[in-house]
Amino acid sequence: MTTLAGKTLFITGASRGIGLAIALRAARDGANVAIAAKSEVANPKLPGTIHSAAQAVIDAGGRALALKCDIREEEQVRAAVAATVDMFGGIDILVNNASAIWLRGTLDTPMKRFDLMQQVNSRGSFLCAQACLPHLLQAANPHILTLCPPPTLDPKWWGPHTGYTLAKMGMSFVTLGLAAEFGPQGVAVNALWPRTLIATDALHMIPGVDAGNGRSPAIMGDAAHAVLTRNAAECNGQFLIDDDVLRATGITDLSHYAVDPSKPLLPDLYLDA
Q: Model pTM greater than 0.90?
């Protein structure tokens, strides 16, 4: 399979950034995209809403459903999934993209912020999978793709921001568990992570980091597309890196993804240079 035409994707946090890039790449194939996110009203400091994303999907050639959904709330998630099924007839793909970030040490991490990260990242990914799986199990070539890094126990990634790493690794461990449970039932469960920084609003959370040292979200959109068009029976339980995925498809020149080609690319968290 080389296209997502007619497939239905449920993407969390798709009003901007990587989630939107994945949505737009699928839309170019003629996919149906459910945009599940909290951003219903425009924020001057954080551009992009579920409505602007839905319009962008339509403009790119897809069908869209804008869903105001806080993935911490079970009732909202189940209602959003039901609305997606009602409109498009099923769900073929879940993309767990939504994530909360706070890169501070233990003494500078309020428990409210700690709880937010655990609820959105690991719990939210588990909840969305639980809600979508009854439909994925009935789909042809179903996929769950979660935006999380390869699991690591290296202390250098834990010491500086234990709360965030715990939440992000929670997503990775949810991926491991779901892959073991549902891979044998035909659902491909994988993770995707960028090799370099990606120029999204999340970079504002990292002091001293310039978006010019990263790549555009489009590389993640293209890499996700390459994964989601794979045969689900042959692709499960993998922790994939964006440029490796693209190189495997024969794309070796990645220079056009650089935000500023004159600046060096910096590695993303949890990956060594």
A: yes
